[in-house]
Amino acid sequence: MRKGGRAAPVFEVAGTGVEVFAAAARKLRRAVPYDAGAWFGTDPATVLPTTPMRVENIEPVHCESYWHREYHMEDVLTFRDVARSTGAAGTLRQATGGSPGRSARYQEFMRPQGYADNLRAAFRIGESAWGVVDLFRFADRPPFDERDLRHIAALAPGIALSLAGLAVTSGRGKPGEAAEPPGTALFDDDDRVTLADAHAERWFTELCGSPLDNPATSLRTAAVYSVVARARAVAAERESGPAVVRLRGDNGRWFSIHASVLYDRRRQPGPVSVVIEPATSGQIVPLIVEAYSLTPREREVTECVARGHNTSEIATRLHLSPHTVRDHLKAIFTKVDVGSRGELVAKLFGDHYNPRMHAPDAELVHVYRS
């Protein structure tokens, strides 16, 4: 229930994927009461938000500032920190030693909204985070405690497996379909689109349902704003690594979004260039392979199979015995649920080329939880 007895808005996006978070929210709320929450699938390579998404009792107007704080400000208990931590979960009061006022998130978002504590957790398989959750409690509730962390830790493995499973749910693209051109857009210092070519307009419209400046799609565009914010953080040397995310649109097509800061001739930072394009098989297959939880060696064997190498050639290239290669292949076939090398290549490299990962069975919906 929202503060003051009003119904709490819930925003969801991304096909049947929202069912994962809807079910998790129902289970978690029984054991760990909370007043507001945000659930995001994440790209395991960057921990940037992707689909599915579910936001409870937080209005979409906070979307841009939410991700601005996440990457532009020094703070504790960031999603990156949580995803890399030993327990993959923590509370703001724990992270600040009982002084949440040290957190920019508390000062600028939580306290004005009446929230007194924050719990964050990552849903990991191994070292890869497939999703995160951000929970808040009003000041009239006790802070989150170790019992709450244990409850969410118990749910986390199942949620992670479900999210990874969404990445390997596929339908075939059109055989021989030609590669489609990328689009480019420029974002100013206020993270507003100032220039965009026709391809960018087309892809953003397909991905978000309408142009980026439409507030009705602000939840979907959270992923876009997060990439822009990360690009600025990388340019300011507050973050390292690429500002890239792989994201599904409503029709199931995968997109790759890459952002980087442009500089003038005096090396002063300027607008952020965002390149968006339908993802290629090379961009999606690593995500698919990771979703099957293949070990590093199994991934190497899979790559060799994709190149057409036989068992002896794989053994030579990887300095293994043929028997060991066959053992790896058996394990790979079991994980990917195929019976031959041909099926393996078809499933990983054929089914996911220009894929339609999900049926277009869900739009952005706005419902109320009593």
What does this structure look like?
This protein is 39% helix and 23% strand. 42% of the residues are buried. A hairpin with a 5-residue loop joins strand 10 (254-263) and strand 11 (269-278). The termini are close together. The radius of gyration is 21 Å and the shape is globular. The protein has a seven-stranded antiparallel β-sheet with strand order 4-5-6-2-3-1-12, with helices on both faces. Strands 8-7-11-10-9 form a five-stranded antiparallel β-sheet. It is an alpha+beta fold and 370 residues long. It contains 13 helices and twelve strands. The protein folds into three domains: 3-169 and 360-369, Beta-Lactamase (2-Layer Sandwich); 183-280, PAS domain (Beta-Lactamase, 2-Layer Sandwich), CATH 3.30.450.20; 283-350, Winged helix-like DNA-binding domain superfamily/Winged helix DNA-binding domain (Arc Repressor Mutant, subunit A, Orthogonal Bundle). It has helices at 18-31, 63-72, 79-84, 92-95, 104-113, 146-167, 198-208, 222-235, 281-291, 296-306, 311-318, 322-336, 341-350, and strands at 8-13, 36-42, 49-56, 89-91, 115-125, 128-138, 183-187, 193-196, 244-248, 254-263, 269-278, 365-369.
